[in-house]
Specification:
alpha+beta, nine-stranded mixed beta sheet, five-stranded mixed beta sheet, 7 helices, binds 2,5-anhydro-1,6-di-O-phosphono-D-glucitol, binds manganese (II) ion
Amino acid sequence: MPTRTLADVLQSEDKSLRKLVSLLADLSMQIVAEIPRALGTTEGTNIYGDRQTELDVWSNELLTKKLVKSGLVSQVASEEMDEPLEGSHGEYSVVLDPLDGSSNIKTDNLVGTIVGIFHDEKLPAKGRNLLCSLYFLYGPYIQGTLATREGVFLSVAAGKGAGSERFLTSGEPHRLPEKGSVYGIGGLREKWTPQVREFADRLEKRKLKLRYGGSFVGDYNQVLYNGGFFSYPALLDAPNGKYRLQFESNPIGFITEKAGGRASTGMQNVLDLEPTDIAQRVPTYLGNRDLVSEFEDLVKGASQRIVQG
Ligand code: AHG
Ligand code: MN
Ligand code: MN
């Protein structure tokens, strides 16, 4: 199989998009290089009340400033900022989780960067309108996962080039395996709804193996490779769950759908959710189409029983 790069995969895309993805690939490598220096936490918290690590702040600064300076981006919004930053000109809007799983840094667990790219969309935007989405996963090797309308491309930062040229790929679109073998569900078990509890029991009975490490990109990546189910669900004390629609659920939901899976709020396809607020959270259920649809039936059944009284 000839080795190709992410740049090859994007050949049919506009030059400006190819430049934007290459810039993001380069910036992801700069974030990785910074990790050893920025292991501390800051006094700051973001608008969600999450304690910001040095690397959250540093990565957010790096990504937002370089994106605005590139002239390619008209708007960039991030989990670490209250409001989107406006660029002077540029045809793309970018949504960012600059560092996902940042509570994992001190324990040397997986962390990553999540990016969604829209063309000429005002933020917050509907996931269905994403042009492409990516995540970079900082593990034993650096992985770049890119979803375009053509499909999902897995890549490894092992090339000699810079930017997208650095990321080698088979060039074959990746599909979720037919039969899933792993699952992960966030939040405290005692706060799970009866439907989440029931579904977790079903997955255990079907011998899916639990994979939960506390970073969305790290945990989700196992489902993308092995098939299965991943969720940060609605909780009894947090009915909207934890994930931010713009910065986490939409970009990863787009990847899931392009890999042949389904991304749901439990009631509907997450990509079709009309956004109401840049910072809104949404219950998030992702994975093999049959498993996510089975979970949705559980939730719909329960809500019908409530309506019938
Ligand atoms: P972030 O570091 O960007 O705030 O994301 C953290 C998220 C996600 O990565 C992970 O799945 C989840 O928080 C873990 O939550 P718990 O600590 O409640 O398990
Ligand atoms: Mn995150
Ligand atoms: Mn984050």
